[in-house]
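Can't attach files on this board, so I'm pasting raw text. These are the components:
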Amino acid sequence: MSNPLVDMQKPDVIFCIGTNMTECHPVAATGIKKALAKGARMIVADPRRIRLAELADLYLPIRVGSDVALLLGMAHVISREGLADEAFIAERTTGSEEFRKHLEQFTPEWAAEITGVNAADIEQAALLYAGAERGAIYYTLGITEHICGVDNVKSLCNLALMTGHIGREGTGINPLRGQNNIQGAGDSGAIPANYPGFQPVVDPANQAKFRKLYGREIPAEVGITKVTALDRCGEQIRAMIIDGENTLVSDPDRKHCQHALESLDHLVVIDLFLTETGELADVVFPAAGFGETDGTCANTERRVQRLRAAVTPHGQAKPDWWIISQLARRLGIDGFEYESARDVFNELCDLSPIYAGLDWDLVENGEYQWPVPERGHPGTPILHEGEFENGRGIFSVLSYRDPAETIDDEYPVWLTTGRRLESYHTRTQSGRAHGIDYLLSEETLEVHPDDVSAWGLEDAGWCELASRRGAVRVKVQATDRSPRGTVFCSFSFNDVPVNILTGSGYDPVTQTAELKVCPVRISKA
Amino acid sequence: MIEKDDSRTMILDGVEVSFTPGETIYEVASRSPGEIPTLCYDKRLDPFGGCRLCVVEVEGVRNPVASCTTPASEGMEVRTSTEAIDEHRRILLELVASENRQIDVDPLRGYASQELTELVDRYEARTGRFEGARSGSSRTDDDNPFILRDYDLCISCYRCVRVCAEEEGDHAINVLNRGFETRISTEFDGSLKDSDCTFCGQCVQTCPTGALGDRKAMRYEGEPGNIEKTRPICPYCGVGCSIDVMTRDDRIIGVQPAMDGPANLGALCIKGQFAYDFVQHPDRLSTPLIRGEDGELHEATWDEALDRAAAGFKEALEKHGAESVYGVASGRAPNEAAYTMQKFIRAGFGTNQIDNCSRA
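---
Top answer:
Structure tokens for the assembled complex are below.
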């Protein structure tokens, strides 16, 4: 997030797109509800009539995967109506002329055709957001899990740059991260393109720095992503270590994923439970988990916070850092003589520019939001104040693309997937918490009541859902949360392995899977 | 005319104190020693003035005023504790206590559950002078596994209703009837499951009498030993809510929100509040596992498992080169896990064959 969570109470216009925040980030959503109670107005763009849509002043029921068209249409209106913040554009951005020329063709009528939203509502959304004193954008995986995920994010950046809704209190471009330390995993360098602290591996200076730190040459070449690695299992990739991820159930195209992991010569899994992924491993290590380990993590607003052990780990379980270090030592790899999580974190702070001003003792009360570039620095709750990291904000000239697969006679229904309030991911944890089953004991497919009858289904009856990659059986739930022609299912329940169906395509830049769009065929089962 | 200078002073129990315009007497007094008692007050919520325990004497004003709703003003002289005020508070507490089935509740019921008990003891109000009719009626029919609705102990402070509306924004619970007949209810007076309740537990944690209780934690009521609290971060989404994990004898028995958690300021959702006990689930892996000749996974010692894991990577490295090894770090494990994983790959194999689960 460019802005802190407390800022969610401060915008006068809120634009939520591709985020089911009341279910997936309920505590963050309380900030938005407070802003609304104080008189803020809210635009919500989402294919489903989720709770946020009910709270919205303006709800835009867009067709799945049509976000870029909506955002181009809005940008067109902002430019045409003279609502752009010319002073901000002149002072802090570059490429606006070409961008605004490019926008001329994307009328709201054009966007309406693609998104299925009224042109008048698209105009209204543009006027609302651009007319705000403090306009803030919030998004989640509904924006990124598309083949055009990067274009979606860039389109949101374009809107913020045009209107100057960035770098100030109560504004910004704010992705809500979905996992407790998904931010920290990137911060810590567990990505193929960057050393810890987002230091690019392709920069020779960084290469030299880490040659010295790690005592060996590492190529100035970006590694392959997990998606590519899974594609190459059994060929280039022969041995894999997976920490705390139930890849088989959470990743797209389950058959492909299973085949990939089974093709490995050697698979090591570290987890709390014997997951479906662990079942395929050669070695499974029991990890100490929540409440059992000391450590640090970074949340969605870049706040570095302490984890503390409250009880001794279950059985012989050990902290992940200990397991990985022991493995490294057995392979004769130097630099793994850690005695505590503190040792590891302090090393990370020493070599990461964004954590440089931190150490174990300083994060005791979670007061710092990175970047904290040096000792004594107060941290950076709001990014891009005064100037952008790379100088000027760059407008992106981009166009709408169809999803990887679109509906046709054979697969005439849009399936979109996500999470529900009471369950989390593949339920390895929430599914083992007492009482959760009382509220959510099984998966259902959310279908519009008119489609239930039009397709010959029955509410609470079974159906078969098939895509180009496979089929699953699931119980039907008639609800007008789903629009006509679009159905929803979560990926939480292993007996409805919806990721057998997904995996139609990947964003060419990030290789994020298009989990939010999958044409399917539905029949009574 | 509004004066520019925003610092004012008043006399609080004979001492001059400063305040900023807009502050209530209670807010000013809460910075000084000598705690004004309250039952309907939660600093996150709008002042309510319902319980009348926080009344104070103001010089020149005939009747005592509720300090939680009365703004401080320049030169105001306030007495927070006098014989008359304390007597008023004692009688009020005796009356409140007389309407409840019990005063003492297990602290596992909720974060604020001891407030009434503590005040009754502080004002020696356990007299039993006003035995009589009791208000409230417990909803024993609501069988949800999370929130006990023991309204026999309700004192109509409305904190649950207000926290649900003001903090959570859900308006799932409301007030039925008035006066002695007041009841806390939901739409159509049904069970919480059939209301807009999201089971975030905020009502439980603000209840000052234990009328609302954390049913999961209450499974451990009455067991011997002290409750200890430790503060990690919730293990679910990326908001990063601080929570206080309650333990007894090396066992997690419940969770309470950290009221000063920087990301959540006391708020939690159903998962942070109630979905913690996977940690002690019998399905947890207790030992390392190794795949045997028979194709099955078998329990192994750490030495055996580490050796086997290392051998597999060594073999891949020797036969297929460093590029054949790949590491996937977790977005659910701490920074230290991700950091050591990337170092394992980079320092160990000299490649950038490392990723985490953020792409799916």
